[in-house]
Task: structure prediction
Amino acid sequence: MVDGVFLTLMAIGFMLHINLRLTIYALIPAPFLIFTTNRLSKRIHDRFLKIQETFSQLTEKVRENFAGIRVVKSYVQEEHRLKKLGKVSNQLVQRNMELTQVWGLFFPMVLGLINLSLAIVIVFGGKQTILLSITPGDFVAFMSYLGILTWPLIALGWVMNVLQRGAASMRRINKLLETRLEITDSSSPIKINKLSGKIEFRNLSFSYDSNQLVLKNINLTIDPGETVAIVGRVGSGKTTLLTLLFRLYEVKEGELFLDGYEIQKIPLEILRRNIGYVPQDAFLFSDTIKENVCFGAPQSPPEKIVEVTKLAQIYDEIMGFPNQFETVVGEKGVILSGGQKQRIAIARALLINAPILIFDNALSSVDTQTEELIMANLKPFLSGKTSIIVTHRISSIKDADCIYVLDEGEIRERGDHKKLLALRGLYAEMYHRQLIEKELEKDQTEEAFGCAS
Result:
């Protein structure tokens, strides 16, 4: 690039020294060259940006197919998925062809304009040489300097191609880098290192958009050390209520306090470090079981790891693997069952020993008997900690200090197990339905054993 600029300036300088008028004639195509280069550069930029977007779609399709290969095979959809992948691949090829067409025009046009400049010099320079306005030696030297300009102009084409491709790539990267965080620390945060676990919702309403409220006028107080359960139908707002505690979304209407402080005033790092969270869809990293359990507390001693895995009823199964805690679970824990992944996620949350623990339907993939056993194991561990349990199985939360029943974003009922049964409302209906389902399941199991014998 530097040598190209130097050669261009040097050649034009000598051309001006030889003959000003002939130099002006020689540079007549220059404005057209600049205009053409500018137009084609923009087209190269736009088309290369489309190529990258399509390539991103292709790689995502491939990743998605590998991740969901079991579902694809179980539904015999290999051909259908291949057709979809082929469609995106063809689109990528087509967009590369469109870029090549523009790029293919660039060099012929540059060379055409250079040759036009050469033709102009030959006509006017030859005439001036015949008329002895310039000497034959100057004319030959002028033609030589004009030839020197050819290489920098061709190099300009390569440089423009590289720059436009780089600019298109950088534009996508900058779009990510320039994305501003929607939720940040307050400009005047409080100084606090540990929370005791008191949680208070005051007249809180929330919606993901302005059309429909997901939570409506929520008022509840959870004291430090209390075990609270939240039940309700699917889509009643249980998970949304929990995400507000992490400030994954901002409270827009009403107030949310932790230890008497507005949640917005608590630094995000302190807030989230003091909450242990177990989601329904347990995410595991493609690493060893030990690294997944220790994710929140990497320096934990081995005895603590063993303790929390025993509490989560996963220790015996881990020891059954050939490499035990050093077993690599694969992408998203592919070698584990849903129940095993959930119990490892529970162990991970217990290990950080946070004052607030949240279980969001964390045992949905575990059978009822194992769930009740885990909850019994956790009871001593949860003593003194604020724990919130969201579940559809009422049998595992009968001992909770307080149970809240959510329906259509509102708290319909609240109280302990006996009080809610006495109300004969939604909670009692759910409880009796689950008892019937449990009896039916028991009868079917006994019937199956009878037939087997």
